[in-house]
Amino acid sequence: MREGRYEEVEAGARALEAEAARLRRRGLRLSVGWHAKALATAVACAHGRGAQVLAELESLAADLGGMTGSGRTLLLMVRNNRAMALGLLGRCAEAEAETLDLLRELARIKHLAPVWEIELCALANLADALYYQDRHEEAEAIARGNLPRAEGAALASLHCTLVRGLSGQGRHDEALTEARRFAPRWDRGQSGGLDLATAGALHGLGRLDEAEAAARRALTDCERFLHPDHPRIQDVHALLARITADEPPTPAAEEAAR
User: pTM of the prediction?
Assistant: First the structure.
């Protein structure tokens, strides 16, 4: 999955889920099936297909309720992916509530199990949900506070949210400086994100040609690597429309488009 081979990973997980249903031992059948379904739905969310698997995530979370040990960790991962799916659907207040509840649960068990990766992903989802509710200062604080310890997809997501949160406050120079400070390791699920954030900062500074070039790079990456339903593609189109129309910068316009 970290190599971005989403289609192969999801197909393998679905095949394993089908095979698990034929196992005789109930405990093994359930465990293998749950883990396979969790992986398949996680890949679908990263690809931008949260709407397609939201009901499946909710059913899986219900099945895992009350579990202990590895089952409890799996439940936390599923809930985190549910929050991501809600965010992809624009249900950001619900995504915020889910991540806050999840973070409280993680705080209770972090001394018992290594859950820091789930925690960072949850924080990235929370920052994103806050940004899309126009709560840019809060989004900035979460992103900035957790960037130093983040890695992988969480690092890329928090970095983009920080850039966009700064632009959302009209701090376009700072946003552009942050966007160019470093380039996180490539993660397919974050395709186009940094170029989109950079384009927003450049547009806010009135550098329209550079903004359009960055936005078109974002669109190319999004269309190549993400599902057509991914909301980032809508965000890029909304920003391109503003840039090419040479409209005054309005940082909340792309959120309204969602």
Answer: 0.89
